[in-house]
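Task: fold both queries, return tokens.
Query 1:
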Amino acid sequence: MFEYEGMQSAAALASPGDPGGSPRTDRAARPVRRVDHLGDARAALERITSLRSRVAEMEATRVDTVVGLPTAPAIAPLLPGGAIRVGGTYAVQESVLLAMTMLQAASAEGAWCAVVGVPSFGVEAAAAAGIDLERLVLVPDPGDQWLTVTAALVDVAQIVLTRPLGRVVPGDVSRLAARLRQRGGALVSLGSWPGADVSLQVTASDWSGIGHGHGYLTERRATVTATGRAGAVRPVSAELLLPAADGAVRPVEPAAASRPVLRPVAVAS
């Protein structure tokens, strides 16, 4: 039953002592309380709208104001927008040093980083690359719990480097991506990752330092190619020293233009 304007329930119209329900004529009828359903609905809508606005402001303050994470200059030209994106997922094929470079700038800025399932991740090499070991979490062998460990570290680290040790289903990818957006972090996979925003791969390389049967490897000149999700981004390539002679990763400087050599010319008298 419902009430509207002057309508009353059957019990209100019936006399308490009259089983037949005849109208009461001996005294004035009781005043009927009118319920303003339309006003209540409007007030509830205003409260909901206000709450939604507050939630949007909180989410914008936590995530949207930080669009890009600190990114090493060597790999910035390979990424859309020139930076590692908040909530982004990246796949690095085979090269641990290239994956390490994805962490370097953020770590230098004071961010926590984590590495899961990569036992070949060298601590000394990481320190030489500029990664702060005091803010680095290493889980070399998570076993079959690698995805659970990765998801847990997303809550505390700004960039998480992980090596997939099993099949990743779409549901896990979606949940992890949502957590990355909420926490303002990014994921780097050493190997393939379903739906990765960008995949980086060394497509050509040339070591220097070895002479005719002797010498030491000093640096590697590598061509790194970036491809986007499902071909959404055209492949982009850059030449990097991976590593340079001092162990750093940096872009290959363009060769200086050769200057003409002036030689004396004999002039017949």
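Query 1 returned. Query 2:
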Amino acid sequence: MRSYLTVSGAAALLLLAGAAPAVAAGDGADRSFTIEDPRITESSGLAASRAHPGIYWTHNDSDDGPYIYAVDSRTGKTLATITLRGVGQPRDVEAISLGPDGNLYVGDIGDNLNGSWDHVWIYRFPEPKQLKDATVRATQFDVKYADGPRNAEALMVHPTTGRVYIASKNEDGGGLYEGPAELTTGATNVFRRVGEVPWVTDGAFSPDGKELVLRSYFSARGYAFKDGRLGTDHAVQAPLQRQAESVTYTADGSALMFGTEGEQSDVVRVDIAGGGGGDSGAPSKDGGGASSATGEASGQQVKGSTLVGALVLAAVGALVLMNRRRKRD
């Protein structure tokens, strides 16, 4: 979703544009890569395919139509474009997640005006068995929140229960919402608040369902997850990106993949300590907000260190000071 930021937020993003991670090409799958497709300019969600190793499903967030793209992490090229049939005109598609039933769930859940729509939609369709351009029939579900409309950018399907969760986006803190045990087409699906979360732009469950990672523009946190509720949390290493939009686990759970918006946007791999399980790594030494992370693809250091974080803060402070002086003048 296009974000409408404060002056300080805009300053931070301007600095990040000059400190975007330098992504090196790798020969194997699930490495850091750059999305090459010129049609994908606002990649807002990521989901790792289980049927096709190394393939990541993504989509634009608005003004694109009912299209889902299969991108090869080996090359950054789109191998298939899926057109959804049987759904209305998408408004603000913000997230995608793969369920244990083999279906992809697409969240048309964005709302820049934070409550202008009394309902949002989820689209569901089977993950294609073959990677080729196709038109598929999708099921559309109407969604409402028990405590009223809100903006959201994160939709996660639990990998064992199949239950759908949504994390709302609010700079003062959002909520984790739990959907019904099964989504239905005959009635509105009401999502109920079950936890408190920070500002969230995307989220993902670990393959074993024991961990939920939520990311924001400048940080990420992991939460223990049991019986549908959040447990203890810790910082997760995440790269600084120009507009941090998406996150997913690799299919084997050995790493997290962090994506961003823009033309030829980067997807950065961050390895998980221990690999393969639900643990998304111990908290970083500096608290994890804008920490450095090692890209496994080529051993490169992902730009986004404490030094860059300090420069961001300095730039923000300078711009705010200049803005105040202009107001006095």
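Both queries returned. Flag for query 2: The chain is about 10% helix and 35% strand.
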